[in-house]
Design a protein that fits this description.
The chain has five helices and 20 strands. By secondary structure, it is an alpha+beta fold. It has two domains: about 5-10 and about 180-290, PH-domain like; about 45-155, no CATH class. The mean pLDDT is about 90.
Length: about 290
């Protein structure tokens, strides 16, 4: 019998793949921004008492707490029940919105949660960690001014090294996703002399006629769950689970409906030839010729 090739249902899978890659890059850029902001903040964190109030420098952020708005100041040697609500939590850097048993919600610009100066205002609480916390609290209460470095400043070199993390994520994503661009552009179904060949990868996937126990066109309800591979609008390649078709499902398709469903022992294969009825008719003819 001669070979017959069938094109898949037309789709634009590369657009979906590029969208996925774009999302990965966007998330990586957000992560880079967070790391840069934290590195900058940790390297420049400082406190000052001026005649008008408390000044906190954290990278590009400059916080001013007017003296007349301060309703209380207290030093806590140790806080308990720390919970980060939003912000940074690194060995020598605590920034953002946190919550502690002793303070409730509090905004931190600190290097640790021990020896913390808590400044209360009508609008909320602020937590900082000057090198000598009680000296800072006394100076604030007496109206003194001065510069107060933080305790144990974060090492910016370590933060900058963290920039390798998003770069690794982008590189790994390209390595995992890029091969599917090639597969999406080459996806074809071929009925050969002794089996079905699914083209796309570096080597075609072969399903011998002797292993096929059934084939039909279906309109399955619901959506498949990806186990391993890619599942995007217009491109499904890999292992899936779909209640309508069974747990051990392999999809090599550009469309989910209609779907040519091939039973292969305990496994099920789903493909999407452009003319499913013609494909099924020809496959059944070959299966009959092979004595199936």
């Amino acid at each position: 019998m001669s070979r017959m090739r069938f094109e898949p249902v037309k789709s634009n899978p590369k657009a979906a793949l590029w969208s996925m890659m774009g999302l990965v890059i966007l998330l990586a850029l957000v992560l880079v921004g967070v790391i840069v902001y934290s590195a900058w903040g940790g390297a420049t964190l400082s406190y000052a008492l001026t005649e008008s109030g408390v000044e906190i420098v954290y990278g590009p952020s400059h916080v001013h707490i007017p003296r007349e708005e301060i309703t209380g100041v207290q030093v806590y040697e140790r806080l308990s029940g720390g919970r980060r609500l939003f912000g940074t939590a690194l060995p020598r850097l605590r920034q953002g919105l946190w919550s502690f048993n002793e303070t409730g919600r509090i905004t931190l610009y600190a290097s640790t949660t021990d020896g913390m100066v808590v400044i209360e205002t009508a609008g909320g609480r602020w937590g900082i960690t000057p090198e000598v916390p009680r000296a800072f609290a006394e100076a604030l209460e007496t109206g003194a001014t001065g510069q107060y470095p933080p305790r144990g400043r974060e090492n910016p070199a370590g933060m900058v090294a963290m920039l390798l993390v998003p770069l690794f994520i982008v590189g790994l994503s390209f390595a995992l996703i890029f091969p599917y661009f090639r597969i999406a552009g080459r996806l074809r179904y071929e009925l050969a002399r002794d089996g079905l060949l699914i083209h796309g990868g570096s080597r075609p996937i072969k399903i011998p006629y002797r292993e096929i126990t059934g084939v039909e066109v279906k309109e399955p309800q619901g959506r498949p769950w990806k186990v391993f591979g890619v599942g995007l609008p217009g491109f499904y390649w890999g292992d899936f689970s779909w209640r309508a078709l069974g747990p051990k499902l392999q999809l090599y398709a550009t469309s989910l409906r209609p779907l040519v469903v091939i039973s292969r022992g305990r496994r099920t294969v789903g493909i999407s030839p452009r003319d499913p009825e013609a494909f099924v008719a020809e496959l059944k003819r070959r299966l009959e010729s092979a004595g199936r």
